[in-house]
Description:
Structural class: alpha+beta
Strand content: 15-25%
Oligomer: single chain
Amino acid sequence: MKITFEELESTLLQVFTQLGFTNEKADLLAKVHAESTLDGVRSHGIGRVVRFYNEVKKGFVKTESQAHKIAEFGSLERWNGNQGSGVINATICTDRAVELAQHHGIGCVALRNTNHWMRGGTYGWQAANAGCIAIGFTNTKPNMPPWGGKESRIGNNPFVVAIPRKAGHVVLDMALSQYSFGKIDEYAKRGEHLPFPGGWDRNDQLTADPSQIGKGEMGLPIGYWKGSALSMILDMLVTILSAGDSTYRVSQKESEYGISQLFICIDPNKFGDGELKEKLLQEIIDYAHNVAPMDPDGKTYYPGERTLEARQRNLKGGIEIDDQVWEEVLHLIE
C-alpha cells in the first residue's frame, strides 16, 4: 500500500502520544520515524515502531526522561541519557555538538545510558542542515562474532559521517554488519534471500537466508576481519568517552538498552572558504559519477544521493508500506 507523508506522520503522532510522551516529544518521534520511512529506510522508521512501543511498555525506554549534561571540558562534553528515548536524546546531543562546533570550531558530545537512535543518518542530516560536518556512532548489543569466533560478542555499531553541500548533503549511514538487522528482517518478512551472504547459520556456515541469520543474530562484519576490528574500536571509544556501558555490559541485560553514543561536529565555515569546499566536493563526486558502469543500466552514487532520490519520489508518489506492518501500527492505536 501507499500513503502520504502527512498521513504517516499524523498516525505515528497518535501512537507516541498514546504512549505518554509530551506533545513536543511525540511530534519529534513522529517526524523522525516518518522521515526515515519517507527516505526509504523503512526498517528503521515504520518498521521499528511496534518494537519501540513494546520497549516503552516494558520500561526499557522512559517517556519522562531525556539527556542532560554531567561534565564539560571546553568543546568536549559528557551527557547522561537517563534511559530516555534514543531519538530524543540523539537529537538533543547533535544540537549541542553543533553549538559547540559553531563556538569552538569542533564539538564532541559523549552520551551514555541512552537507547536505540533508530536511523543514525537522521543526525547526520540534522548536523549538515545546520552547516556542520558530523561524525557519529553507537554501540549495540552483541550481534556479530569477533573474526574467527563462534559466538556474537561485538555489535554492528552503526557509523555516520555527514558533509554539508549546497547541491545535496553527503551522508554516509551504515552498520558495521554487511546488512543491518532491520534490513535482514525486511527480507525475511518478504520471504526473499539477501543479494549476498549476510551472516552465519546455526551450523557456522555463511548464508544469504535472512531467517537463519536472524535466529542466531550472527551478522557478517563488513570487510570481514577489518569490520570486526572497527566494531571493537568504536565500542571502546564510545565507552571510555561516555563512561557508559560497552557491548559486553549491554549483553548482560535482558534487552538492548542503556547503550553509549558519540556525536562529533565540525564547523567548516570557520575557514571562510565555502566556495572552495563546494568545488572540491563536486570534483570528487564528478570523478566517481563519470565512470562506465559494469551494468549498462546502472550508475554510481555518492553517499546520500539515493536517499535524496527516494525522498523526492515518495513525496510525489506516496510512501510504500507493507500492509501487515501498517495494520500492526494501527492496532497500537486501537
